[in-house]
TrEMBL record:
Gene3D superfamilies: alpha/beta hydrolase. The keyword Hydrolase applies. This is Esterase. Transmembrane segments: none annotated.
Amino acid sequence: MKPIYQYDVQLPAQMDPDKKYPVVFTLHGKGSNEKNMFGLVAPLAEDFIIIGIRGNLPLGAGYQYYDLKSLGNPIREMFDEAVKQLEAFINDATEKYPIDPDKRYVLGFSQGAILSMTLALTMGDELKGIVALNGYVPDFVKAEYSLRSVKEVSVFISHGEYDSIFPVRIGHETGAYFKEQTSRLTFKLYPTDHGVSEENQFDFLNWLKQNAGLTIIKE
């Protein structure tokens, strides 16, 4: 596999060589990196393969997957290429590592959430589920992409009530859009800005464990 993305892979410490594992692919926000995302999902490390994908475009001290014309307005060609390359990356990684293809999850924050939701719509039930933290679905994806059914895809969407980057209205619109697409939607608001609270983290970690048929974490 020769991906265009640098990535970090964490395998369960006590791996059974005869077993396939659920996987979480993490997609970071604009200007961040794959290491920053690991802290959000580290409690899953015993049961999941965790693959953090770094954006291929340097931005300040971090990275991004595509650039913008303006806030909320991705450069279409760059966005299209990122979606195509991420799909290929997910499929290549599934062949390279002992991943259960029926338990593939994508978790993203901000720009990563935008891509996570887009991947759900383009890959359909090739993904078991997604977690989208503070993002939205670009209008051109809804109107012009070739979309697949997400009826069988589990979707966890959360948004900050005081998000100063993507106002909470966008969170409500995103939740309403997916509510029309799948009955397997969990939509939650948290009293935060453009970030992830401990309560939000606790909820999506348990959601992932439960969805993958694993024991949930006790408070």
